[in-house]
Design a protein that fits this description.
- By secondary structure, this protein is of the alpha/beta class.
- The chain has 2 domains: 5-37, no CATH class; 54-111, no CATH class.
- 27% of the residues lie in helices and 31% in strands.
- The chain has a 3-stranded mixed sheet with strand order 3-2-5, with no helix packed on it. Strands 7-6-8 form a 3-stranded mixed sheet. It has a two-stranded antiparallel sheet with strand order 1-4.
- β2 and β3 form a beta hairpin.
- The longest helix is centred in the C-terminal third of the chain and has 10 residues, at 89-98.
- The two termini are 29 Å apart.
């Protein structure tokens, strides 16, 4: 049944949009949809491991902004040394602190970044 509620649900990773963790309604009242969606900005294990290796870049539509902008499918990890050569100031501080950045499509294409997302295994 579509929209069926349960004691358990699945959180989605904010970064890769893959299932990331199981949620449990401790009140046992059947209040969780099976696929809850994004509940927090904690990366899944795979994204966390990739973010230790470099900075995650996610492409977004040119005219969007905010905490969850319209994503257009670009998703890559680049080495920290590369981001340090490309950015400075507040942008660089954000990237190094949070290990990810949204990049609008115009800048994405200007940098020649690929449009295919890494697949989870």
């Amino acid at each position: 049944m579509i929209g069926e509620l349960s004691y358990v649900g699945m959180n989605t990773c904010y970064f890769c949009n893959e299932p990331s963790e199981i949620l449990l309604d401790r009140r046992m009242r059947n209040t969780l949809p099976r696929n809850v969606g994004v509940m927090n900005m904690r990366p899944c294990t795979k994204c966390e491991d990739l973010m230790k290796q470099g900075i995650l870049l996610i492409s977004i539509k040119n005219d969007t902004q905010g905490p969850n902008p319209y994503r257009t499918g670009g998703w890559v990890i680049i080495k920290q040394e590369a981001i340090e050569r490309m950015l400075d100031g507040d942008f660089l501080k954000f990237a190094l602190k949070h290990r990810f950045m949204f990049i609008n499509d115009e800048a994405w294409d200007a940098m020649g970044l690929p449009r295919c997302k890494l697949t989870k295994q």
